[in-house]
Amino acid sequence: xxxxxxxxxxxxxxxxxxxxxxxxxxxxxxxxxxxxxxxxxxxxxxxxxxxxxxxxxxxxxxxxxxxxxxxxxxxxxxxxxxxxxxxxxxxxxxxxxxxxxxxxxxxxxxxxxxxxxxxxxxxxxxxxxxxxxxxxxxxxxxxxxxxxxxxxxxxxxxxxxxxxxxxxxxxxxxxxxxxxxxxxxxxxxxxxxxxxxxxxxxxxxxxxx
Length: 209
Prior knowledge:
Elements: H1 9-27, H2 32-48, H3 52-69, H4 72-88, H5 92-108, H6 112-126, H7 135-155, H8 159-175, H9 177-196, H10 198-204
């Protein structure tokens, strides 16, 4: 690792952001080994410099990789770190994302009590999110929240209630269709920008491996 004396905090944060962006790129290409590599780099930087918000975010991202790999126990440990540190830092969107990953894991394990517990916690945190800054996030939250509630009720055989939640999801999807398309286009433009700088960014971390 480069000397601590050389990198000031702003440069450290930029390095973590770059590693996180690379991890994000590989994650959404389903290249989970490469995503894990860069998320690990970013997380280690954050730990070394004791940057708790970034420890939370990078832990959650790494946990998402492990969730995709089926490494559920490892994923849970990291996602709980994200939830805790992001909540403490007031980064409620990251904490909520971590909670939804935990929900996904426990749904796969048919642990509906834990699913309900984490959903309720996510719902509580959603009330602390800035509505103006994160309007689309909150709309997507409501869709995912209703979807998960439907899955809980379907899983325990309460199909009539599940149907009500699925109908709510369909209604919200219709209302948010335009915003979803715009968001997808913005995400694609961001991906192109990341890809343009990918070689340069990756070279920055060769000496860290």
